[in-house]
């Protein structure tokens, strides 16, 4: 079996399934487990830190681990950096068969910090049976020193090991998400996959196939030259309803799930309603009775839409990442009101005499949808996210991009993965 620790909503698992292998995910979050179940992914709902390794001993071919990043992430308080010496000590002790987690945990400033040491508990127990054959682990870049410690220990156990930082955009993910990666194998030289994309495209040559330009948000979302986000209101209710993750009063959004490759278009729900500032004065104060029914023609968003370009702002903070839709997104993270991702309209550059024309009133910022966020993480448009909007966005922000996972998994699963081969079927 392939064991997936801290499996989340299925980033690694979806990639493995596309490559023909089904892993077993260990995950605690109930909504991530429901998402996995709806996607047909094998899951044990449990606390990874409490679950015994014995059921997997002698049966585990590969081990994947994505410990929670909240303690280390720049989006949080980063108490994991202060706890790092304790985590290193836990890894050293677990590698020697000593379980000192309880005493070390009591000294941690963030109880989640020590979860980064949990894979070593599994690795030590499995090593006694000569397994696993290969190991893949990922975390935020600040965890790289810890991965280097893991690599040093694994080498003494007969593994070839590599650690480093990979940028998801270099592998066709429409997001410049950087992650610390550990690759280890008993049967092959550990090395990162060859990048397939680059910020500046490289032509094919005698020395290789070259690299395509990074995938832009517009390309991933299927937007053409004149496409744009459409302001909508989604009526609530149903198992996917619930409170908004960011109660800032900004409008909800829903794109038409325009997709490329084998991504499928999904029809709008029957209760979808639309409204626009062009509906007249006081549009923002209109109540539900004034919303346009789903079977009525949609309002014109703006007659000057072609004069505006769209950028994605990653959060409401002063240092927020702002990227044009013709670029990859910055790292997407959610779960806090300050982390609201918004599409912002900006005037397109114009030349005279067009430059003398008034571009009109700028469209209001509109929030990214869960479908859009999932696609920018390279989940299929139809991935069956479970939970209310806050729970769904939290799962998406914490997930590992399936497309990058596929590139990392392919050599160990005996699969050949070309840059054109991996399509995320809905």
Automatic annotation (TrEMBL):
Pfam families found in the cross-reference section: DNA_methylase
GO MF term list: methyltransferase activity
Gene3D superfamilies associated with the record: DNA Methylase, subunit A, domain 2, Vaccinia Virus protein VP39
UniProt KW Transferase keyword: yes
Region of interest called Disordered, as start-end residue ranges on this chain: 237-299
Alphabetical list of InterPro entries matching this protein: C5-Methyltransferase, C5_MeTfrase, SAM-dependent_MTases_sf
Top EC class for this record: transferase
Enzyme Commission numbers on file: 2.1.1.37
Keywords linked to the UniProt accession: Methyltransferase, Restriction system, S-adenosyl-L-methionine, Transferase
Segment forming the signal sequence: none
Active site: residue positions: 69
PROSITE patterns from the UniProt entry: SAM_MT_C5 (PS51679)
Similarity-based family: Belongs to the class I-like SAM-binding methyltransferase superfamily. C5-methyltransferase family.
Protein name per Swiss-Prot or TrEMBL: DNA (cytosine-5-)-methyltransferase
Organism for this UniProt entry: Actinacidiphila polyblastidii
Lineage summary: Bacteria, Bacillati, Actinomycetota, Actinomycetes, Kitasatosporales
């Amino acid at each position: 079996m392939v064991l997936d620790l801290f499996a989340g909503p299925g980033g690694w698992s979806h990639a493995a399934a596309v490559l023909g292998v089904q892993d077993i995910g260990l995950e605690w979050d109930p909504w991530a487990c429901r998402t996995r179940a709806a996607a047909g992914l094998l899951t044990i709902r449990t606390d990874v830190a409490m679950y015994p390794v014995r059921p997997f001993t002698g049966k585990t071919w590969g081990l994947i681990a994505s410990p929670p990043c909240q303690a280390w992430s720049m989006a949080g308080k980063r108490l994991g950096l202060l706890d790092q010496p304790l985590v290193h000590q836990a890894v050293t002790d677990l590698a020697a068969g000593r379980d000192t987690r309880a005493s070390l945990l009591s000294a941690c400033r963030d109880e989640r910090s020590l979860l980064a040491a949990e894979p070593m508990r599994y690795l030590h127990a499995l090593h006694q049976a000569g397994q696993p054959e290969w190991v893949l682990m990922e975390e935020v870049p600040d965890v790289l020193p810890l991965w280097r410690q893991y690599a040093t220990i694994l080498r003494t156990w007969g593994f070839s090991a590599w650690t480093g930082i990979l940028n998801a955009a270099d592998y066709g993910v429409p997001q410049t998400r950087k992650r610390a990666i550990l690759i280890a194998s008993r049967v092959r030289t550990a090395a990162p996959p060859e990048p397939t994309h680059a910020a500046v495209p490289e032509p094919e040559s005698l020395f290789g196939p070259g690299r395509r330009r990074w995938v832009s948000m517009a390309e991933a979302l299927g937007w053409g030259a004149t496409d744009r986000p459409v302001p909508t209101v989604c009526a609530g209710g149903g198992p996917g309803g619930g409170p908004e993750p960011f109660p800032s009063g900004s409008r909800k959004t829903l794109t038409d799930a325009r997709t490329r490759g084998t991504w499928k278009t999904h029809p709008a729900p029957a209760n979808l309603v639309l409204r626009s500032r062009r509906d007249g004065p006081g549009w923002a104060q209109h109540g539900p009775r004034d919303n346009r029914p789903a079977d009525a023609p949609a309002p014109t968003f703006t007659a000057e839409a072609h004069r505006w370009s769209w950028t994605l702002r990653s959060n409401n903070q002063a240092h927020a990442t702002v990227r044009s839709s013709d670029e990859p997104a910055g790292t997407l993270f959610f779960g806090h009101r300050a982390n609201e991702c918004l599409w912002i309209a900006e005037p397109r550059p114009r030349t005279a005499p067009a430059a003398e024309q008034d571009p009109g009133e700028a469209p209001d910022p509109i929030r990214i949808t869960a479908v859009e966020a999932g696609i920018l993480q390279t989940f299929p448009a139809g991935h069956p996210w479970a939970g209310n909007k806050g729970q769904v966005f939290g799962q998406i922000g914490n997930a590992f991009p399936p497309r990058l996972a596929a590139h990392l998994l392919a050599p160990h699963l005996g699969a050949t993965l070309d840059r054109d081969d991996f399509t995320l079927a809905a």
